[in-house]
């Protein structure tokens, strides 16, 4: 006589579930210690930008000529009241570096978003429709690429005048080409796929196809380009401010601080070195984060 167990346990119930893409992406990111360090540094920069009035130990524009060119606190002659020293007008350098994060992040993210919107729209239209729209948009891109971006930005800013929003506008408009070219190449490889053909066959409109079927498939390269453009825009803004063509002089920027400190490199190195280090580390952290986002967004990264 055969005995049947009263609580049979199906074998499939104990089969381990396949990890989701989100879990795999998180694991890929957590294994990248360099990316985690870059993200932590960027989080610190964002906190400094958002809460600069609460974090900065002094008014960044307050002048005290009796304390001009004081060295950092750890050097002989330094003071604990000015941890990174003071500049040629006696302004607290640490406070100015903290306030400088505001302009850099605003210009970097604003220019990247503006360029991303323009370039993505142009790339989608160029790659999807082809023909005359493709030729016209790509020839416009070729003409813009013929001019160095920084020289074009200098010419436009010199014509419009200095100002924060002018800088964002100029850097955004001059940076759309890289987005457009990458999106166009991705769309050219996707528009002949079966899911696009089937969507057309059932009467889905072109705008809906581009928004719901093509745009999600180009977000991975866009994330990488966007982060790289943020870093490039931060450096470009610093270059314009260094030349006196960026934001107004009363606004604290790392580029203007570098311009002020270049005359004192031989005697008071800290006036130029600390804003330069802040600029370099921020750009490096943004680039490392962009590489990490590319690895996470690429499905092949999950199978490493």
Describe the overall structure:
- The chain is mainly alpha-helical.
- It is built from 13 helices and no strands.
- The longest helix is centred in the middle third of the chain and has 37 residues, at 93-129.
- The termini are far apart.
- Residues 1-19 have low confidence and may be disordered.
What keyword list fits this structure?
13 helices, disordered N terminus, 304 residues, mainly alpha, 65% helix
How are the SSEs ordered, and which strands pair?
Blueprint: H1 21-31, H2 33-50, H3 52-55, H4 93-129, H5 131-145, H6 149-160, H7 164-173, H8 176-190, H9 194-201, H10 206-214, H11 219-242, H12 254-261, H13 270-297
Helix pairs in contact: 1-13, 2-4, 2-13, 4-5, 4-7, 4-8, 4-11, 4-13, 6-7, 8-11, 11-12, 11-13, 12-13
Oligomerization category of the chains in this entry: single chain
Low-confidence stretches: 1-19
Measured as a percent range, the helix fraction is 55-70%
Number of strands: 0
What is the beta-strand fraction? under 5%
Task: Give a short overview.
The protein has 304 residues and is mainly alpha-helical. The chain has helices spanning 21-31, 33-50, 52-55, 93-129, 131-145, 149-160, 164-173, 176-190, 194-201, 206-214, 219-242, 254-261, 270-297.
């Amino acid at each position: 006589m055969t005995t049947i167990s009263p609580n049979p346990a199906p074998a499939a119930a104990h089969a381990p579930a396949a990890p989701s893409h989100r879990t795999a992406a998180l694991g890929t990111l957590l294994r990248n210690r360099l990316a985690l360090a870059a993200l932590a540094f960027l989080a610190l920069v964002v906190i400094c930008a958002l809460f600069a009035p609460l974090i900065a130990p002094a008014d960044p524009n307050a002048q005290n000529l009796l304390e001009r060119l004081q060295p950092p606190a750890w050097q002989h002659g330094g003071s604990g009241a000015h941890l990174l020293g003071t500049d040629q007008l006696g302004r607290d350098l640490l406070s100015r570096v903290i306030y400088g994060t505001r302009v850099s992040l605003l210009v970097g993210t604003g220019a990247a978003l503006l360029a991303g919107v323009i370039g993505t729209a142009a790339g989608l239209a160029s790659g999807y429709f082809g023909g005359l729209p493709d030729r016209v948009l790509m020839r416009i891109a070729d003409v813009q690429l013929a001019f160095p971006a920084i020289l074009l930005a200098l010419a436009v800013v010199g014509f419009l005048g200095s100002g924060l929003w002018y800088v964002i506008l100029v850097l955004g408009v001059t940076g759309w080409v890289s987005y457009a070219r990458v999106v166009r190449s991705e769309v050219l490889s996707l528009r002949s796929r079966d899911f696009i053909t089937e969507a057309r066959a059932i009467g889905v409109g072109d705008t809906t196809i581009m928004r719901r079927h093509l745009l999600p498939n180009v977000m991975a390269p866009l994330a990488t380009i966007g982060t790289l453009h943020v870093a490039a825009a931060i450096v470009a803004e610093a270059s314009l401010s260094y030349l006196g063509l960026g934001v107004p002089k009363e606004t604290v920027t790392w580029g203007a601080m570098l311009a002020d400190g270049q005359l004192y490199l031989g005697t008071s190195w800290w006036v130029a070195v600390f804003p330069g280090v802040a600029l370099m580390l921020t750009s490096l952290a943004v680039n490392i984060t962009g590489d990490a986002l590319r690895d996470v967004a690429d499905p092949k990264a999950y199978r490493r």
